[in-house]
Amino acid sequence: QVQLQQWGAGLLKPSETLSLTCAVYGGSFSGYYWSWIRQPPGKGLEWIGEINHSGSTNYNPSLKSRVTISVDTSKNQFSLKLSSVTAADTAVYYCARVAEAAAAGWYMDVWGKGTTVTVSS
Amino acid sequence: DIQMTQSPSSVSASVGDRVTITCRASQGISSWLAWYQQKPGKAPKLLIYAASSLQSGVPSRFSGSGSGTDFTLTISSLQPEDFATYYCQQANSFPRTFGPGTKVDIK
């Protein structure tokens, strides 16, 4: 049973860099994409980006200039960095596994529990 | 970006009711659509992928249909544990985008 465990700083000041890591336990790291999604308080879900085991990335253009997603295959971990944060980046951040459904698209089938990140001066 | 809309934004229903939620994409996405369920304080859970395929472990009262731009999620007989918010998500192109959600609450 694959599990994702995520961690990182929960309180940031404006202009700082958000840094989160997600570890994958109990399953293969290759053959999937690994994604970050966020959810501002009381709002919907926003896809941030994703990476595969070889480091190939896809980013949301709305955040691309500030986002870096990286992978450490030796530890089965992937990480998110979001620079120059503002209050608008306050959200619950989720990591998720993205699996291919037999040539019918890629879907987020396993999720971490989420990390609440607050940006406040 | 492909914009996803959902209707209704909320629905009040009783246990045993049949509930249908609609999702529309701003352009054709074939069958590359997922439905997720989210309960308060919890991560989303994948229910349906490829528009109509039931994710392993998900009860058969959940079903999905549609292709192109119009999709539906149906709960055939609402159970107490189904009260939650439901999101659709397109997997056709980047960036991956979600609908705004439909909250199903108790009548």
Ends distance of chain A: 40 Å
Compute the number of strand runs of chain A.
11
Distance between the termini of chain B: 36 Å
> Helical amount among residues of chain A, as a percent range?
under 10%
Number of strands of chain B: 11
Unreliable residue runs of chain B: none
Protein structure class of chain B: mainly beta
Shape type of chain A: globular
Q: Report the β-strand fraction of chain B as a percent range.
A: over 45%
User: How many helices of chain A?
Assistant: 0
The run of helices and strands of chain B is EEEEEEEEEEE
**Low-confidence spans of chain A:** none
SSE run of chain A:
EEEEEEEEEEE
Give the averaged pLDDT of chain A, no decimals. 96
Structural class of chain A: mainly beta
Mean pLDDT of chain B: 97
- Rounded to an integer in angstroms, the radius of gyration calculated over CA atoms of chain A is 14 Å
Strand content of chain A: over 45%
Q: Greatest chain-chain interface?
A: A-B, 24 and 27 residues
How would you sum up this structure, described in words?
- The complex is a heterodimer of chains A (about 120) and B (about 110).
- Chain A is an all-beta fold.
- Chain A is built from no helices and eleven strands.
- Chain A has strands spanning about 5-10, 10, 20-25, 35-40, 45-50, 55-60, 65-70, 75-80, 90-100, 105-110, 115-120.
- In chain A, strands 2, 4, 5, 6, 9, 10 and 11 form a seven-stranded mixed β-sheet that branches. In chain A, strands 1-3-8-7 form a four-stranded antiparallel β-sheet, with no helix packed on it.
- Chain B is an all-beta fold and about 110 residues long.
- Chain B contains no helices and eleven strands.
- Chain B has strands at about 5, 10-15, 20-25, 35-40, 45-50, 55, 60-65, 70-75, 85-90, 95-100, 100-105.
- In chain B, the strands form two sheets. In chain B, strands 2, 4, 5, 6, 9, 10 and 11 form a seven-stranded mixed β-sheet that branches.
- In chain B, strand 5 and strand 6 form a beta hairpin.
- Chain B is globular and about 35 Å long.
- Chain B starts with a strand and ends with a strand.
- The chains are: A mainly beta (about 120), B mainly beta (about 110).
- Chains A and B meet through strand 10 of A and strand 4, strand 5 and strand 10 of B.
